[in-house]
Amino acid sequence: MKEIIISNTVLIYDTIKELTNEDNNLLKKAIEAKSKAYAPYSKFKVGAALLLKNGKIILGNNQENAAYPSGMCAERVAIWKAFSSYPNAIVKKIAITASSETFTLDKPVSPCGSCRQTLSEYEINQKEPIEILFMGEIGKIIKVNSLKTLLPFSFDNSFL
Ligand code: THU
Q: Cα–Cα distance between 101 and 132 in angstroms, integer?
């Protein structure tokens, strides 16, 4: 038996003001995207903003559906929007935020497992890490430097 310790660096910021201008700006774009989310069922709006290496910012938000499983998360709307328009894009970072109409979300919104898997596919392809920043409506901001931090031992095309 061999024990492996997986260690990762996670940065936790108390306020958006502590972020670099680039991160601050991207998170503000995610807030803007969130305001346009279509979330009439959960009343939980999520916004995502991707910064591409060429400087372009791509926005996405959750899109719900009366047939609930047909809805889609903000992160996947954003990443698919980016790669359907720019198939050779390199994603530098993604900022994610959320808020609810029924309570105050005071902790960073963690991307769901399917979104992590989807983002991981593109990170592996581009061979450059994607930074992920996430926050709630208020409160702390979490920043990690790669999908590998959020999704260790991921399934990828090396298994196929
Ligand atoms: N949601 C996202 O957009 N991203 C996530 O990572 C988690 C959940 C959305 C899906 C649904 O519209 C609402 O939040 C409640 O689950």
A: 25
CB 83 within 8 A of CB 122: yes
Per DSSP, 143 falls in state: E
pLDDT average per 10 residues of sequence, the chain (160 residues): 93 97 98 98 98 97 98 98 97 98 97 98 98 98 97 96
- Distance between terminal CA atoms of the chain? 27
**Phi/psi-derived region of residue 43, left when phi > 0, alpha when psi is between -120 and 50, beta in every other case:** left
Query: Distance between CA 53 and CA 90 in Å, rounded?
Result: 5
Ligand 1 proximal residues by C-beta, below 6 Å: 39, 42, 44, 46, 62, 64, 71, 73-75, 111-112, 115
Closest CA to 31 of 61, 65, 75: 61
Q: How far is the CA of 46 from the centre of ligand 1 (A)?
A: 6
Whole-angstrom distance, CA of residue 95 vs CA of residue 74 = 11
Tell me the two tokens of residue 17: 């003001």
* Tokens describing residue 13: 């910021």
